[in-house]
Amino acid sequence: MFTDILVDNTIWTLRKAFKKNKAPIWRALEDELLGPRSNRREVNVNRLTNVTKNSEVVIVPGKILGAGSIGHKLTVCAFSISAMAAKKIIESGGKFITLADLIEKYPDGKGVRIIG
């Protein structure tokens, strides 16, 4: 059905999570993946600093880039991340979480923000 097996599996995971939990956040993320790849979001670490608070849980339906710095910890789920951005987030005390773990920990999507 889709050309990329990883994207296909992610879409089905989000679809199942939406049907099971009736949380609109999972449907919104599925719609993001169904769109053209050229429309995926790119977010710099500096933007994450400006729009988030300490210990927030965020998902970026696109790529996180390393421009800027971050001064607080975040729990981040992203479709892609640059090495520099990963280093900066980890050094600030943040951590990364897989989409499956995010859905398991926050099945209703409460407390999770989409950034981009």
In short:
The chain is an alpha/beta fold and 116 residues long. Helices cover 44% and strands 23% of the residues. Helix 3 links the parallel strand 1 and strand 2 (56-65).
Can you walk me through this structure?
The chain is of the alpha/beta class. It is built from 5 helices and 5 strands, in the order H-H-E-H-E-E-H-E-H-E. Strands 1, 2, 3, 4 and 5 form a 5-stranded parallel β-sheet that branches.
Strand and helix map with partners:
Layout: H1 5-21, H2 24-34, E1 41-44, H3 45-51, E2 56-65, E3 74-81, H4 83-91, E4 95-96, H5 99-105, E5 112-114
Parallel strand pairs: 1-2, 2-3, 2-5, 3-4
Which CATH class? Alpha Beta
Which band does the percent of strand residues land in?
A: 15-25%
Query: How many strand elements?
Result: 5
CATH topology: Ribosomal Protein L15, Chain: K, domain 2
Query: Order of SSEs, N→C?
Result: HHEHEEHEHE
Globular, elongated, flat, extended or rod-shaped: what is the shape? Answer: globular
Report the C-alpha radius of gyration, rounded: 14 Å
Give the helix proportion (percent range): 40-55%
State the secondary-structure class.
alpha/beta
Defining key terms:
alpha/beta; 44% helix; Ribosomal Protein L15, Chain: K, domain 2; five-stranded parallel sheet; 116 residues; 5 strands
